[in-house]
Amino acid sequence: METVIGIDIGTQSTKALVLDGKGQILAEHSRGYRVDTPHPLWAEQWADVWWEAVLDCLRDCLADQRINPQHVKGLCVSSLYGGSGIPVDADIRPVYPCLIWMDRRAEAQVQWVKAHVDLSRLGDITGNGVDSYYGFTKMMWLKAERPEVWEQTCYLLPPNSYINYRLSGEIAIDHSSAGNIGGIYDLEKRAWSPEMLDALGLDRDKLPDRLVDSGATVGGLVPSLAESLGLQAGIPVVAGGVDAAMATLAAGATRPGNHVAMIGTSMCWGVINRRVDARQGLISMPHVLNGDQDLYTFGGALTAGASVSWYVDTFCGEDKAAAGESGSAFERLEPPARELPPGANGLLFLPYLMGERSPVWDAHASAGFIGLSLYHQRHHLYRAVLEGVTFALRHNIEAGSQQGVTLDDHLIVVGGATQSDLWMQIIADVTRMPVYTYRESVEAALGAGLLAGQACGLLDLAQPLQHGTLVERATPCESAACRYDELFKLYCQLYPTLKPIMHQLNTRHTQSE
């Protein structure tokens, strides 16, 4: 049986899986690791940690009795957004950790860009804005704060590009990863932007010349590695791309208008389109499928499921204790929360527990419950948290609807949030869209496997696949949707109203430390 391998390098773990010609998962394995946070707001990882995790996952998958390594036709790598990229020297050895998407150390560079660069021009060229999330500001930080590292650096490689080099010996960057760097990539020309590189003071020679589609072959698997793994030498190593787009592909997003919400620790909503407006505050890059014409535009909340976990861990010890080992606090909270009306009897929650990404883009934004009274109990606040994260989802969807693409009339949701029937109903009511989920686990590694399958002729992504089963989970209730329309308007007023106070509190808190 011919197979392909999909690999996803995540923030907290790497996963590999093996697919057959129908897109069915035959074997999968993962390995976890940690993010290094040596200072507040810093988040970095060493590339060799990822490489060792990739090798471990490959070995475990290929050891499965159902898999014949000699029948593997190719592999593809998806990866977390690598921010700055991995600084490597002339021998392609990492000389500094990768400043990943979570890293916020480049705030001074953000302020410099806002003061010295034409932001309208930057948005027109790149389809993106300026924030310490973006890789180009992290590159600027490396150049300013680590000049000795900058001097040693030959290339700055996204995580999947580095792993592809270790697999094939070839250097290339896929267009989705290049576009997600922001700031220095011309979204219309699908090329690096000399104009913006000059404006930002970044070196063109530290970016590889070879830019490829996510479904293109970077090179063949090197013989020494093939021998150690039992694979055939020279099988295609497919470029891959950014994990959010890969997971969206795995969920079936293949044409303009398809949109998917991924709700786990954070929330990411993405839509396939063909034109962007950077003024809407979303992030855009070429899609991992049909990337020569289709774009992937997405927005996200930093703390989605993390808001729920924080609330339960902080305030619901009694529920956790009562649930014991046989249950969970969520099982105790959901039934009474389900009986509450929309709005949890007059409560709103802002889910900005770590600042916020799109469309707010404010590292100093903070969270809060609005409308609290002595009447409210734990299940009221629990429902308010679910609703607040869902309002953040709608905030991004409404920004995306301004991009000129007609969204599908239903929403696909993947991730840990799908375990909650209550949350699925809230999402349907808030967005006014039927909500669908998959019975199976749909993740970025699956998207990578699908791309590998297409590149090797094993799968045709233009045809319906059997890799997942969509299930309708919730349909909008008109009365609830009308109430949520009113509450969403109030939600959107809260941030601009409270922003000055949030910033004053943040400044005073920082100064007191």
From TrEMBL:
Gene3D superfamilies: 3.30.420.40. The keyword Transferase applies. Keywords: Kinase, Transferase. Residues 261-455 form the Carbohydrate kinase FGGY C-terminal domain. Residues 4-249 form the Carbohydrate kinase FGGY N-terminal domain. InterPro entries: ATPase_NBD (IPR043129), Carb_kinase_FGGY (IPR000577), Carb_kinase_FGGY_CS (IPR018483), FGGY_C (IPR018485), FGGY_Carb_Kinase (IPR050406), FGGY_N (IPR018484). GO terms for molecular function: kinase activity. It holds the Pfam family FGGY_N. It comes from the Bacteria. Belongs to the FGGY kinase family. This is FGGY-family carbohydrate kinase. It comes from Vreelandella janggokensis.
